[in-house]
Automatic annotation (TrEMBL), chain A:
This is ABC transporter permease. The chain crosses the membrane at residues 21-40, 72-94, 121-143, 163-184, 189-206, 258-279. Keywords: Membrane, Transmembrane, Transmembrane helix. It comes from Streptomyces cylindrosporus. The lineage of its organism: Bacteria, Bacillati, Actinomycetota, Actinomycetes, Kitasatosporales.
UniProtKB/TrEMBL annotation, chain B:
The keyword Lipid metabolism does not apply. The keyword Calcium does not apply. Keywords: Membrane, Transmembrane, Transmembrane helix. The chain crosses the membrane at residues 28-48, 89-109, 130-155, 175-200, 207-229, 300-318. This is ABC transporter permease. It comes from the Bacteria. It comes from Streptomyces cylindrosporus.
Length: 284, 333
C-alpha cells in the first residue's frame, strides 16, 4: 500500500487502525461532497423557488426548507463528531490493546511504552487536525453561502462549534480523554462508555456557560423593546433605569469561540500529561 | 439441523445459569437500572410540577393580550421544554444502547475472548447458553422500557392542550417514545445486537455492526410508519392548503374525473399548469389523532415479529456452527 517508506511504528499504527482511518476519511469526504451538492444543485433550486414566491400568492418552498434542514444536519454532524472519536479512542485505540494484552506484546518487541503511546496519539491527532480543519473550512463556506435560505444563526450550539477551531479542539480532547480513560480502566467497553460520557459532559458544561466566556453588552431603555435578530440575548429585565437587556453581538463570536477552544485544548493537554504519567504504572 | 435447536432452546434456562449471567453482566444491569430510574424520575417531575408550572406560564401569557407591561413565567416554559426534549431523546436512544451492549458485551465479547466456548464445555449447550443470554435481558428491557413508555404517555397527555408548545402526537421523537413501538424497537435492538455478536464474533466490530443495523432499522420503521394503517383522505378546492393536523402520508391534485395526481413542479404559472392538467381540487392522505394506537400497535407488532425471526436465525446459526465444529473435532480424532 505504501510505496514511500514510513518508519515501522507509525506504519503499524496505521495498519492496525485502518478501518478507523477509512471511516474518518470517508466521513470527511462525504460531508464535503454533501455540502458542495447542497450549495450548487439544491441551493439553486431553492433560490428559484424563493424568487417565484416573491411574486406569487401561492408557492412552495420545499427545496429551500430541505436545504436549510440538511445544512443544519451537517452542522450537527461536524460539531458532535468528537463523540465518535471519544468512543473510538477509549475502546479501539487503547482499551482493547490493554485488555487483550497486545500492548504488552508490543512493549516486549523493542518499542518502549512511551514511544508506543506517542505514536498512538500523534498519528490520530495529525489526521484529526487535517480532517477537522477541512470540515470546518467547508462548513464555514457552505453555511454562509446562502443565508437567505437558512433559518438558523451563529448562536446555535452546534453551528457555534462547527464554524471554527473548537471542532478540532474537541476532536483532540476526545482523543486524549479516551486514551486516559482506557489507561485508567484497561477494559474496552467500559472505557468506551465512560470516555463518551466524559466528553459529552464537558461539551454540555461548556455549552451552558458559553455566554459568560466574554463580557456582555447591555442596552437600556425607558420603554419595552426587542433586540433585532442576530444578537444573542442572555438576560432581560426591569431595573431602576427602565428595561435592560444583556447580549452578545456577532462580533463576540471569535473571542468566545477562542476562549472555548483554549479551555478544550487545556483539558486535552492535561489529559495527555496524566496519561503519560500513568503509563509507567501500567507497564509493570 | 432444525431438530437440533428447538427443544433445547425452548426449555427455560436453569436458575443457576441465570444467576451466573447476572453476575457476569452486573455493571450493565446497574447502568440500565440506573438509567431507567433516572428517566422515570425525570418523567414524574415533568408530569407533575414542570407541566403545572409551564401551563401556568402559558395561562399568564395568554391572559396578557396586548398589554405592554405583562410578566409571565418564561423560565418555567423553557425548563419544561428543555427537560422534555432531553428525556425524550434519552428514551429514544435506549434501544440503540441495548443493541450496542448486546453486540459488544453480551455475545461479541464472550466469543472474542473465548469464554463462550469455555462455558459450552461445562455442560451448558450453546442453545441453552443463548437462551439464558436472551431471556433475562429481554425481560428486563421489556419491563424497563414499558414502564418509561407508560410514564411518558401519561406525562405527555397531561400537557396536551395546556402547554401551547407541547409536542404534537405525530412529532417524530415524541411518537417514537410515546407508545409500545419503543418496547418493540428495544427488544429488536437486543436481538440485532446478539446476532451481530454471533456473526462477527468480535466485540467492537459487533458493536459497530449492531449500531449500523439499528440505524437502518429505525429509518425503515420511520419510512414504513405512515403505511401501517389505512390513511384518511380529505379533499378541498384548489385554494385550500396542504396542511393537515396529523401524520401526512400523501398529497396532490384531484382532476375533474376524480383521479389523484401529484403536484406538478410549477415555478412559473401554477394556475395555467393546473388547468392544463384538468385539476379541480386537492387531496390530503393523513392519519388523524385516532390512528395513534393502531399505528403504534402495528409498529410494535412488526418489530416483535422481526425480533422473533432474528432470534430463530441466531439459534440456527449457533447450533449449525457448533455442530460443524464438533464434527470437525470428531473427524480429527
Amino acid at each position: 500500500m505504501t510505496t514511500f517508506a514510513l518508519p515501522g511504528l507509525p506504519r503499524t499504527v496505521l495498519r492496525l487502525h485502518r478501518t478507523a482511518l477509512i471511516v474518518w476519511g470517508t466521513f470527511v469526504a462525504a460531508v464535503i461532497g454533501w455540502l458542495v451538492w447542497l450549495n450548487t444543485v439544491t441551493a439553486d433550486r431553492g433560490e428559484r423557488e424563493m424568487a417565484y414566491c416573491e411574486h406569487h400568492e401561492t408557492c412552495n418552498i420545499l427545496t429551500a426548507l430541505n436545504y436549510s434542514e440538511r445544512t443544519g444536519y451537517i452542522g450537527t454532524l461536524v460539531c458532535y463528531s468528537f463523540l465518535a472519536v471519544a468512543a473510538w479512542a477509549g475502546a479501539a485505540l487503547i482499551g482493547r490493546e490493554l485488555e487483550s494484552g497486545t500492548a504488552k506484546l508490543a512493549w516486549t518487541q523493542g518499542v518502549t511504552p512511551v514511544r508506543w503511546l506517542t505514536a498512538k496519539l500523534a498519528l490520530p491527532a495529525l489526521l484529526l487536525t487535517l480532517g477537522g480543519t477541512a470540515l470546518v473550512l467547508a462548513f464555514r463556506w457552505g453555511w454562509s453561502a446562502h443565508r437567505d435560505l437558512m433559518g438558523d444563526d451563529w448562536t446555535f450550539a452546534d453551528v457555534f462549534v462547527a464554524r471554527g477551531p473548537a471542532t478540532v479542539a474537541y476532536g483532540l480532547c476526545a482523543l486524549a480523554v479516551g486514551t486516559l480513560t482506557a489507561l485508567l480502566i484497561r477494559r474496552t467497553l467500559p472505557a468506551l462508555g465512560i470516555s463518551l460520557a466524559a466528553m459529552w459532559l464537558l461539551n454540555f458544561v461548556l455549552e451552558r456557560h458559553r455566554g459568560s466566556f466574554w463580557p456582555t453588552l447591555t442596552r437600556t431603555s425607558a420603554t419595552r423593546f426587542d433586540l433585532q435578530n442576530g444578537l444573542w440575548q442572555l438576560t432581560k429585565g426591569h431595573g431602576a433605569d427602565g428595561y435592560y437587556v444583556t447580549y452578545h453581538p456577532q462580533s463576540h463570536f471569535w473571542p468566545m469561540h477562542l476562549v472555548e477552544t483554549g479551555i478544550v485544548l487545556a483539558v486535552a493537554a492535561l489529559a495527555t500529561l496524566i496519561a503519560f504519567r500513568l503509563l509507567p504504572r501500567r507497564t509493570v | 439441523m432444525t431438530a437440533l435447536a428447538a427443544p433445547a432452546a425452548l426449555r427455560a434456562p436453569s436458575p443457576r445459569l441465570s444467576r451466573w449471567l447476572l453476575r457476569l453482566h452486573r455493571p450493565a444491569l446497574y447502568v440500565f437500572t440506573g438509567l431507567v430510574l433516572v428517566l422515570a424520575a425525570a418523567l414524574l417531575w415533568l408530569w407533575g410540577p414542570l407541566t403545572d408550572a409551564a401551563a401556568e406560564g402559558w395561562r399568564q401569557w395568554n391572559a396578557c393580550g396586548d398589554h405592554p407591561r405583562c410578566s409571565y413565567d418564561q423560565d418555567a416554559i423553557l425548563r419544561y421544554k428543555k427537560v422534555y426534549d432531553v428525556t425524550t431523546l434519552a428514551m429514544f436512544l435506549l434501544p440503540f444502547l441495548v443493541a450496542a451492549w448486546a453486540g459488544g458485551a453480551l455475545t461479541g465479547g464472550e466469543l472474542e475472548n473465548g469464554t463462550a466456548e469455555l462455558t459450552w464445555t461445562q455442560g451448558v449447550t450453546p442453545a441453552r447458553w443463548l437462551a439464558a443470554k436472551l431471556a433475562l435481558p429481554a425481560a428486563l428491557v421489556a419491563v424497563g422500557t414499558g414502564l418509561l413508555v407508560l410514564l411518558h404517555h401519561l406525562m405527555w397527555s397531561a400537557g396536551e392542550g395546556r402547554i401551547d408548545t407541547s409536542k404534537s402526537w405525530y412529532d417524530t421523537l415524541t411518537f417514537a417514545v410515546n407508545g409500545p413501538g419503543l418496547v418493540g424497537l428495544a427488544l429488536a435492538g437486543l436481538v440485532v445486537g446478539a446476532l451481530a455478536g454471533l456473526v462477527v464474533r468480535r466485540a467492537l466490530a459487533a458493536l459497530g455492526v449492531a449500531l449500523a443495523a439499528m440505524a437502518a432499522l429505525w429509518f425503515a420503521t420511520l419510512s414504513a410508519l405512515p403505511y401501517l394503517w389505512p390513511a384518511v383522505t380529505t379533499t378541498g378546492d384548489l385554494d385550500s392548503g396542504f396542511a393537515v393536523d396529523g401524520l401526512h402520508v400523501d398529497y396532490g391534485l384531484v382532476t375533474s374525473t376524480g383521479r389523484h395526481i401529484p403536484v406538478p413542479v410549477c415555478n412559473g404559472r401554477c394556475e395555467d399548469v393546473y388547468t392544463k392538467l384538468d385539476a379541480v381540487g386537492i387531496y390530503n392522505d393523513y392519519h388523524p389523532r385516532s390512528h395513534f394506537w393502531p399505528l403504534h400497535l402495528m409498529e410494535a407488532g412488526l418489530l416483535l415479529a422481526l425480533a422473533a425471526l432474528l432470534t430463530l436465525l441466531a439459534f440456527r446459526l449457533l447450533t449449525r456452527r457448533t455442530a460443524t465444529a464438533r464434527h470437525r473435532e470428531e473427524a480429527a480424532v
